[in-house]
Amino acid sequence: MREVEILMFLSAIVMMKNRRSITVEQHVGNIFMFSKVANAILFFRLDIRMGLLYLILCLVFLMTCKPPLYMGPEYIKYFNNKTIDEEIEGDQRVSWIVEFFANWSSECQSFAPIYADLSLKYNCAGLKFGKVDVGRYQEVSTKYKVSTSPLTKQLPTLILFQGGKEVLRRPQIDKKGRAVSWGFSEENVIREFNLNELFQKAKKLSKQREGAAMEPVMEENIRAPDTVQSGDGLANGESKKDK
After folding, report:
1. How many structural domains is the chain composed of?
2. Range of the domain at 182
3. DSSP H or E segment with residue 165
4. What pairing do the DSSP bridges indicate for beta strands 127-133 and 165-170?
5. Where is the Thioredoxin domain (predicted)?
6. Angle of CA points 183, 201, 181, to nearest 5°
7. Mean pLDDT of the chain
8. CA separation (Å) from 191 to 57, 111, 166, 185, 196?
């Protein structure tokens, strides 16, 4: 009877955990994770030695069999602790959406293909996508106030920078310093960061910059034939005088 209560309790936790899951892989991963917890509890109740052996095997599996990293197509620039400020503050007209992530975070791994797909759809000259590994560069996590604790709910964190300054952040941080629950789905990112409007404004900006760059070239091309014609006329005039 006790075992049934344990399984029912863990099943309720799985259902609550899956409410925040985005992909099928996350749902399956949650089920397997809590199944291992249930097995460990049942093994310890049956025999402590079997429970310890099972726990050791689970730890070895977690340490040796890490989930694969996303290796698909993307238009994302990867920052380090030195380049992030240079890029964000470099061109004030460019908007940056930067993901603060850690390779060990399962939520970051699940969000990686979604973020890559968004970069393929919305990246342009005036709107760019970046990533920085705050698990590796602790000074970046400290500066931008992104917690890298194993129990944190701030990974991943998306921040929109405009004019070199932070404009919007998800998940938000409340007054107590805790992350407000937020689903990292493609629809939520597009809606919260208003990507469609940002993309249209960025495209207009890039067209204006291209037009401004083309004007000197067009003027030079227009002046070039006049110079050639005047040169021909001068040469003809000299030949007539000579004659």
Report:
1. 2
2. 76-199
3. strand 165-170
4. unpaired
5. 70-207
6. 10
7. 79
8. 43, 16, 18, 10, 8
